[in-house]
Amino acid sequence: MNNNITPFYDPLLSYEDNYQQGPFGDFAYLPKSSIVMPHSSRFLNFDVNLPFGIPAGPLLNAKYVKAALGYGFDLCVYKTVRTRAHKSHPLPNVLSIHPKGKLSAEVDTVLADHDFTFPISITNSFGVPSFDPDVWQPDMADAVLAAKSGQHVIGSFQGTPGNEATIEQDYANAAKLVDETGAPILEANLSCPNEGVNKLLCFDFTKVERVAHAIKNAVPNKPLFLKLAYFAHDDAILPLLKKLDGVIEGYSTINTLSAKPVDAQGQPALSSTRPVGGICGEAIRWAGLDMVARLARLRAELIHHFTIIGVGGVSSLEHYQAFRHAGADAVMSATGAMWNPQLAFEIKRALLE
Ligand SMILES: Cc1cc2nc3c(=O)[nH]c(=O)nc-3n(C[C@H](O)[C@H](O)[C@H](O)COP(=O)(O)O)c2cc1C
């Protein structure tokens, strides 16, 4: 691991230990000062200091969210929660990956190990763990209250097959529970690769439409984002955009690209039962940018009005600007921020120069 930077999530510790003991590195202490942006931006109908933040996943609980807000990440997504407790996969959950050349969207095989060298690409494999709502609801409410002027906490959630008679109902219940915490913006995760690459909910448009309507019926008054995976071409996503026009407020994309992480002997690096993992960081930036550019172009062509949160491999001002240029209304960084807790400060400082 790079000795200079301690990531705020420790890949060598279990999810539970990170939850209890983290965040680590700089995020363990609040900074002495912050950076004031002279002008705020608009995100939906909210003022935001800088439309930059951390997407669903790395901010496990209120301690993490408070640290991220303190370090100037103005849009913080509280980790995806469920309507019932759901255990994390065992270690390893995060490995460094070393693709040869450009990672494709075709489930490539990639070398994975614990050598976290920059620029970092990782595989993450957690299975979207969640505590019971009795635990996460008061904690999320605490996180929401920590947002200062120009900052916002977004509540991410997903339905779980089997928790309710239908998945639509479980998404709606999860949305209601998140709404009760006071989170001003909701995000439904439809793109978890750990539920099976070919089974991602976001590729089943009829179901997505039903899920979106069920959530909106349950919580009509809050903006709703859908977290999407990578769609390789216009025709693949157009029907979804048309079905959801006027139903939801925006898309957050991308989640991860799927790949098969293997060790030096060519064996599954996560475990034999988890041959595929979600890839994030440097290796997927091309796909995040491509998806954002496509959504922005289709938004203009269709004269739709959704908001786009661009995600994927952002670890510098240049990357932030590339996503904004591609049409993202806001930009988020998971892997980049985990290994550089100063990232929002660095971007703000550079913008002010
Ligand atoms: C440790 C970790 C946990 C994640 N967990 C979730 C999750 O629970 N829900 C979700 O929608 N995305 C999750 N993601 C995906 C991120 O939100 C993001 O879409 C992805 O990491 C790509 O961004 P990046 O290249 O900046 O890491 C997770 C990512 C990481 C690194």
What attributes characterize this protein structure?
353 residues; alpha/beta; TIM Barrel; eight-stranded parallel beta barrel; 10 helices; 31% helix
Quick rundown:
The protein is an alpha/beta fold. It has ten helices and 15 strands. Bound molecules: flavin mononucleotide.
Task: Describe what you observe in this structure.
With 353 residues, the protein is α/β, with parallel strands linked by helices. The protein has a domain at 31-84 and 129-255 and 287-352: Aldolase class I (TIM Barrel), CATH 3.20.20.70. 31% of the residues lie in helices and 20% in strands. It has an eight-stranded parallel β-barrel with strand order 3-4-8-9-10-11-14-15, surrounded by six helices. A five-stranded mixed β-barrel has the order 5-6-12-13-7. Helix 2 (62-70) runs parallel beside helix 3, helix 4 (167-180) packs parallel to helix 5 (205-218) and helix 5 packs parallel to helix 6. The longest helix is centred in the C-terminal third of the chain and has 18 residues, at 285-302. The radius of gyration is 19 Å and the shape is globular. The structure holds flavin mononucleotide. Its cofactor is FMN. InterPro entries: Aldolase_TIM, DHO_dehydrogenase, Dihydroorotate_DH_1_2, Dihydroorotate_DH_cat. It holds the Pfam family DHO_dh. Keywords: Flavoprotein, FMN, Oxidoreductase, Pyrimidine biosynthesis.
